[in-house]
Amino acid sequence: MAVKSDSSVQSCDFVLFGTLGDLARRKLLPAMYQLDKAGLLHADTRILGIARKGMPQEEYVAAVKEALSTFLKEPLDEGTWTDFQQRLTFYSTDFTDPAGYAGLKEVLNPNSVMVNYFATPPSIYGDIGRCLQENDLIQPNTRVVLEKPIGHDLASSQVINDQVAAYFEESQIYRIDHYLGKETVQNLVALRFANSLFASKWDNRTIDHVQITVAEEVGIEGRWGYFDKAGQMRDMIQNHLLQVLCLVAMDPPVNLNADSIRDEKVKVLKSLRPINQDNVFENTVRGQYTGGFLKGNTVPGYLDEEGANLDSDTETFVAMRVDIDNWRWAGVPFYLRSGKRMPTKHSEIVVHFKNPPHNLYRDHYRQLPANKLTIRLQPHEGVEIQMMNKVPGLDSSTRLQTTKLDLSFSDTFKNERIADAYERLLLECMLGNQALFVRRDEVEQAWTWCDSIINAWENSNEPPKSYPAGSWGPVASVALITRDNRAWEE
Ligand SMILES: NC(=O)C1=CN([C@@H]2O[C@H](COP(=O)(O)OP(=O)(O)OC[C@H]3O[C@@H](n4cnc5c(N)ncnc54)[C@H](OP(=O)(O)O)[C@@H]3O)[C@@H](O)[C@H]2O)C=CC1
Ligand SMILES: O=C1O[C@H](COP(=O)(O)O)[C@@H](O)[C@H](O)[C@H]1O
């Protein structure tokens, strides 16, 4: 296996708090393994797995191997594993006990960048920071990665951010939104700013409206305790969908540096038209799934999921019309939709362009179908443009047909593997690049906007509308867009 010792790949002590937890096993350890397999870890990079439960080193190594065998989408490569296991060190302590960190310093390499990944409940982020500081483990090149959700609302996110800021500078803090690590989400920036075709046609003069759909086939996967307190608004819209919306709507950044991009995203978030109790039902629909059919199988309703409360009003679906009050987007609605137990896993952005100013074909077509740019985020990653073409033939010069330019990533980049989002994000963090991580003011601005909607829902006492599992959401979500003489992409 080739290990790059290129100066851009720094040696790193990757300290994984919560190494036996679900996120670490499912995503983080497989991502580190893939980076190793691709030769993207420095020869001296090590993984220090920390957990409350004590166990001998061999048992930990076996547990990591079991996690990789379970969660990698391909068979474990024995050569990579032989090298990867050499990087593993296990350390046990209660994360809130400073005395427990005493032996950690001896294990760390003073020449390596220290990346602390907090794969733990956010309630102990501050405790971990304090324990690291009391043990003199925070240096200028120490970094910390925080998982979402950062809080439950603006006030609680400020508490968490303040607790972490007591020990780390903003330049040391990497807040994860795994959508920013997806290949297709990054490609959005390239598509917009590396192609003059789109760069010059990206505003209210050319675009009619934008749809962003993130449909999930899964339900809540045994996570009732977490999900019922969150709901789809906090779980998906506050972070992933608003981040995607920002990348679609932002002005060109001065350059690709982290703060240049983040400055532009914050401007979009500040321009979102507030939704409150005066306009919440005009602009949003919340739903909750009942029992239904998915891919030929019956699936339970939300209230029949394992651990459920009978009377929960938590939403598992949200559709909304979002207006961006700025020069570029005045009059261009963004329709957002995200739900669990939809018919299929399917995430895409569809940009609907305006019709040409004058219809030369009006004798044959009362209205020409508009051009559409579809960016498929997952699965079947790719980009598609719908346009009108003349049907070849001598019989008529006015017979037109809707056609598609379809660029499928898997067909076009046949030999390239599409990396998991966490691989990209862990690599960027080790390289010290914050561009794909969320700055504090972004998180707080997103909460400010979402809190107003959540409060309006709570004050109305109106329950979410039901939809059968395996459908595209409540009927009211269709009404939300047809009222504007538009329709959801199906
Ligand atoms: N799982 C996922 O797919 C995702 C998770 N997240 C976020 O990532 C974080 C971790 O989630 P997840 O892995 O699912 O949670 P888990 O509960 O599976 O893992 C958390 C780990 O932290 C350990 N831990 C908690 N408190 C302490 C302590 N005081 N001392 C030592 N160890 C402690 C737990 O150990 P013990 O078992 O001994 O209590 C457990 O192993 C959460 O913030 C979650 O919201 C975000 C997106 C997706
Ligand atoms: O953060 C989360 O994301 C997943 C969806 O992620 P994807 O990469 O599979 O699209 C969602 O299921 C989960 O509830 C949420 O916490």
Automatic annotation (TrEMBL):
EC numbers: 1.1.1.49
GO terms of biological process kind: glucose metabolic process; pentose-phosphate shunt, oxidative branch
Keyword terms: Carbohydrate metabolism, Glucose metabolism, NADP, Oxidoreductase
Catalytic reaction annotation: D-glucose 6-phosphate + NADP(+) = 6-phospho-D-glucono-1,5-lactone + NADPH + H(+)
Protein name in the entry: Glucose-6-phosphate 1-dehydrogenase
Pathway(s) the chain acts in: Carbohydrate degradation; pentose phosphate pathway; D-ribulose 5-phosphate from D-glucose 6-phosphate (oxidative stage): step 1/3
Keyword Zinc: no
Task of the protein: Catalyzes the oxidation of glucose 6-phosphate to 6-phosphogluconolactone.
GO molecular function annotations of the record: glucose-6-phosphate dehydrogenase activity; NADP binding
Segments forming domain Glucose-6-phosphate dehydrogenase NAD-binding: 15-187
PANTHER family: GLUCOSE-6-PHOSPHATE 1-DEHYDROGENASE, GLUCOSE-6-PHOSPHATE 1-DEHYDROGENASE G6PD
Annotated catalytic residues: H240
UniProt organism field: Ferrimonas marina
Residues bound to NADP(+): R52, D94, F95, K148
PROSITE patterns the record matches: G6P_DEHYDROGENASE
InterPro entries noted in UniProt: G6P_DH, G6P_DH_AS, G6P_DH_C, G6P_DH_NAD-bd, NAD(P)-bd_dom_sf
Protein family according to the UniProt entry: Belongs to the glucose-6-phosphate dehydrogenase family.
This protein's GO CC annotations: cytosol
Residues where substrate binds: H178, K182, E216, D235, K340, K345
All copies of domain Glucose-6-phosphate dehydrogenase C-terminal, residue ranges: 190-489
